[in-house]
UniProtKB/TrEMBL annotation:
Gene of this entry: proS
Domain Aminoacyl-transfer RNA synthetases class-II family profile: 33-465
Record-listed E.C. numbers: 6.1.1.15
Name assigned to this protein: Proline--tRNA ligase
InterPro entries to which the protein is assigned, alphabetical: aa-tRNA-synt_IIb, aa-tRNA-synth_II, aa-tRNA-synth_II/BPL/LPL, Anticodon-bd, Anticodon-bd_dom_sf, Pro-tRNA-ligase_IIa, Pro-tRNA-synth_IIa_bac-type, Pro-tRNA-Synthase_IIa_type1
Reaction catalyzed: tRNA(Pro) + L-proline + ATP = L-prolyl-tRNA(Pro) + AMP + diphosphate
Free-text comment on this protein's domains from its UniProt entry: Consists of three domains: the N-terminal catalytic domain, the editing domain and the C-terminal anticodon-binding domain.
Assigned protein family: Belongs to the class-II aminoacyl-tRNA synthetase family. ProS type 1 subfamily.
Protein's job: Catalyzes the attachment of proline to tRNA(Pro) in a two-step reaction: proline is first activated by ATP to form Pro-AMP and then transferred to the acceptor end of tRNA(Pro). As ProRS can inadvertently accommodate and process non-cognate amino acids such as alanine and cysteine, to avoid such errors it has two additional distinct editing activities against alanine. One activity is designated as 'pretransfer' editing and involves the tRNA(Pro)-independent hydrolysis of activated Ala-AMP.
Length: 569
C-alpha cells in the first residue's frame, strides 16, 4: 500500500484526554479516532491489527473444534427477564424500545441468546458436546469510559459458549479453551497471568481471568514470588493460622473516644495496635443486615462476603439503615449487645484477638478489653479479608506480591445457571430430561490490541510484534525527487508485493524527518530506508524493536524479512 494513498492521520501532540499510553499512541499513530466518549472508529491501520488478533483467535478456537456463529447485537428483553439478569445486570446494560414499544438490550454478552438457540434446536445428549463462538461488537454503558480501548462503551469481543451433558465434559472443554487462550495471548507476545477470579454478574463458580501486566491496569493481581499461583486480589484466599497472645483476659471497659472514628484514630488515642482493634461494618446482604468483623489492620472483602453467604447483592448499609439496626452512626460500631436480627460474621483473625477494642454503638464511645465469644458471639468465622503483600502464598510456596493488570480474557464454568432459567434441557442416556451444562468464555479483541501497545512501545511510538504488525515491512523513500531513490523504491515495492509481503511504501513528498518520525510512531518491525546509496542498490534496514541499523543489497531484503519473521514465531 502506498502511504500517499493510505489514510493515516498522525499527530505530533498527545491528545489532552488520553491518560493511557495505548490511547495516546493509537490516536497519534492514526489507528483509531474517538466518535463519542468510549466509542471509537478503527481507521485502516487499526482495522488491519484487529484482523490479525481475530485471525489468531479463529485459528486457535477452530483448532479445538469450535464453530463460529454470528448473533444479533439487538436482543429481546424477554430472554434477559427469563434469566433474571434484566433486573440484576445493572445500569451497564444498554436498553432501548422500538416503535412498537417493545424493549430490547444491546448485547453486553450473549448467554441468554445462545442458550435460547440451543434450547430450541438441541434435544438429545447425542448432539453434545458443542462449542460455538463469535467475534462481534458489544455494548456496555460504562459510568466512566477511560483509557481509550481499555474501557469503552462499544468494543470488539470474542465470546464462546460450551454445552455439555455432564460436568466432566464441562471440565474438559474448560481446559481446552483455557489452553487455547494461553496460546492466543502468547502469540500476541503478551506478558500475562491466568488468575483465579470472581464470576460477578455472569454467575457460576469456577472462573479465571487472563491479566496482562501493566501499570495502567485497573485490577490488582496477587501472585506468589516462588510459584505459579496468581489470583485477582478479590479472590485470593488467605491461608494463615492466627495464634492468640498469651495474655490474661481483662474486664470489659467502656471508654470515651470523642471524635475518634477511624481505626487509626482509635488506636492512636488508646495507644493500642491497629491489629488489636475490631473493625465492624454493617452490610445489607440480599436486603438483610449482616455485621462483618475484621481485624483493624485488615480490609473486608465484600466479594468474599457475597460468596460465603451465597448472596446475590451485597451493599454497604446506608446511614439510615445503620442507625435503625445498630442505633448509631458509623465510626463507633461494634458487635456487643446488638439485636438478634443482625447476623454477625467475622474473619478468622478476629478469633485470635485478646483484650481488643471495638465500637460500643454509642457516639464517642468504644469498648476496651474486648474478647470474642466472651463478650459477643459470632455466627460464622470465614476468610473475609483482602490478602496483603507479604502474606504467605495460599499454595504454601513463597509470599504474595501485587501487580496491576488489564483483563483481556475471562473463562467461566456456568453450570446450569442459564439452562435452568431458560429451560434448555436435553434427554440423557436414560431418557431423562436434564439441564445442559454450560461454560462461557470471552476475549476482549480491541482491548487485547490496546494491551499489546501498553507493553510494547518506547518513547518514539508503538513497537508491534510481528504477529500483529499492520504491515510486514515499511519501505521509506527518503527523497522521491531523486530519480535513483524513486526508481529503487518502486522496484523494491513491486518485488516484495510479488513475493506476497504486505508492504507500506512511504512515497510521500515529505521531509525525511517527518517520514522517520511517522515510521517509528506506526511501529512496523522492519523499516527499509532508501537513501543516498540507492544508485548502488544498497539500502539501510532498521529493526524497530532494537533500533539497530545495517546496510544491505536489495537482493538480500527478501531473505532478511523471511528470517526476521521466522525468528519471531
Amino acid at each position: 500500500m502506498r502511504q500517499s494513498n493510505l489514510y493515516i492521520p498522525t499527530l505530533r501532540e498527545v491528545p489532552a484526554d488520553a491518560e493511557a499510553k495505548s490511547h495516546q499512541l493509537l490516536v497519534r499513530a492514526g489507528f483509531i479516532r474517538q466518535s463519542v466518549s468510549g466509542v471509537y472508529s478503527f481507521l485502516p491501520l487499526g482495522r488491519k491489527v484487529l484482523k490479525k488478533v481475530e485471525s489468531i483467535i479463529r485459528e486457535e478456537m477452530d483448532e479445538i473444534g469450535s464453530q463460529e456463529v454470528l448473533m444479533p447485537a439487538l436482543q429481546p428483553s424477554e430472554l434477559w427477564e427469563e434469566s433474571g439478569r434484566w433486573q440484576t445486570y445493572g445500569p451497564e446494560l444498554m436498553r432501548l424500545n422500538d416503535r412498537h414499544d417493545r424493549t430490547f438490550a444491546l448485547g453486553a454478552t450473549h448467554e441468554e441468546l445462545i442458550t435460547s438457540l440451543v434450547r430450541d434446536e438441541v434435544k438429545s445428549y447425542k448432539r453434545l458436546p458443542m462449542v460455538m463462538y463469535q467475534i462481534q461488537a458489544k455494548f456496555r454503558d460504562e459510568k466512566r469510559p477511560r483509557f481509550g480501548l481499555l474501557r469503552g462503551r462499544e468494543f470488539i469481543m470474542k465470546d464462546a459458549y460450551t454445552f455439555d451433558m455432564d460436568y466432566e465434559g464441562l471440565d474438559e472443554n474448560y481446559d481446552k479453551i483455557f489452553n487455547a487462550y494461553k496460546k492466543i495471548f502468547e502469540r500476541c507476545n503478551l506478558n500475562f497471568r491466568a488468575v483465579i477470579a470472581d464470576s460477578g454478574a455472569m454467575g457460576g463458580k469456577d472462573t479465571h481471568e487472563f491479566m496482562v501486566l501493566a501499570d495502567i491496569g485497573e485490577d490488582t493481581i496477587a501472585y506468589s514470588n516462588e510459584s505459579d499461583f496468581a489470583a485477582n486480589i478479590e479472590m485470593a484466599p488467605v491461608n494463615i493460622r492466627y495464634n492468640k497472645k498469651e495474655e490474661a483476659s481483662r474486664d470489659l471497659k467502656k471508654v470515651e473516644t470523642v471524635d475518634q472514628k477511624t481505626i487509626q484514630d482509635v488506636s492512636d488515642y488508646l495507644n493500642v495496635s491497629t491489629s488489636d482493634c475490631i473493625k465492624a461494618i454493617l452490610w445489607m446482604v440480599d436486603e438483610k443486615p449482616v455485621l462483618v468483623l475484621a481485624r483493624g489492620d485488615h480490609e473486608i472483602n465484600d466479594i468474599k462476603v457475597k460468596n460465603v453467604l451465597d448472596a446475590e447483592v451485597v451493599e454497604l448499609a446506608s446511614e439510615e439503615q445503620t442507625k435503625h439496626y445498630l442505633g448509631c452512626e458509623t465510626g463507633y460500631l461494634g458487635p456487643i449487645g446488638i439485636s438478634s436480627d443482625v447476623q454477625i460474621i467475622a474473619d478468622h483473625a478476629v478469633a485470635s484477638i485478646v483484650n481488643g477494642v471495638c465500637g460500643a454503638n454509642e457516639r464517642d464511645t468504644h469498648y476496651q478489653y474486648v474478647n470474642p465469644e466472651r463478650d459477643f458471639e459470632v455466627d460464622l468465622y470465614e476468610d473475609l479479608r483482602f490478602i496483603q503483600e507479604g502474606d504467605p502464598s495460599p499454595d504454601g510456596k513463597g509470599t504474595i506480591t501485587f501487580a496491576k493488570g488489564i483483563e483481556v480474557g475471562h473463562v467461566f464454568k456456568l453450570g446450569t445457571k442459564y439452562s435452568e432459567s431458560l429451560g434448555a434441557n436435553i434427554l440423557d442416556q436414560n431418557g431423562k430430561s436434564t439441564p445442559i451444562i454450560m461454560g462461557s468464555y470471552g476475549i476482549g479483541v480491541s482491548r487485547t490490541m490496546a494491551a499489546v501497545v501498553e507493553q510494547m512501545h518506547d518513547d518514539n511510538g508503538i513497537v508491534w510484534p510481528t504477529s500483529l504488525s499492520p504491515f510486514d515491512a515499511h519501505v521509506i523513500c527518503v527523497n522521491p525527487k531523486n530519480d535513483a531513490q524513486s526508481e529503487l523504491g518502486e522496484r523494491l515495492y513491486k518485488k516484495l508485493k510479488e513475493k506476497r509481503f504486505d508492504v507500506l511504501y512511504d512515497d510521500r513528498k515529505e521531509r525525511a524527518g517527518v517520514k522517520f518520525t511517522d515510521a517509528d510512531l506506526i511501529g512496523v518491525p522492519v523499516q527499509i530506508i532508501i537513501g543516498k546509496r540507492a544508485d548502488e542498490g544498497i539500502v539501510e534496514v532498521k529493526d524497530r524493536r532494537t533500533s539497530e541499523k545495517q546496510e544491505m543489497a536489495i537482493s538480500e531484503i527478501e531473505a532478511y524479512i523471511e528470517q526476521y519473521y521466522s525468528n519471531e514465531r
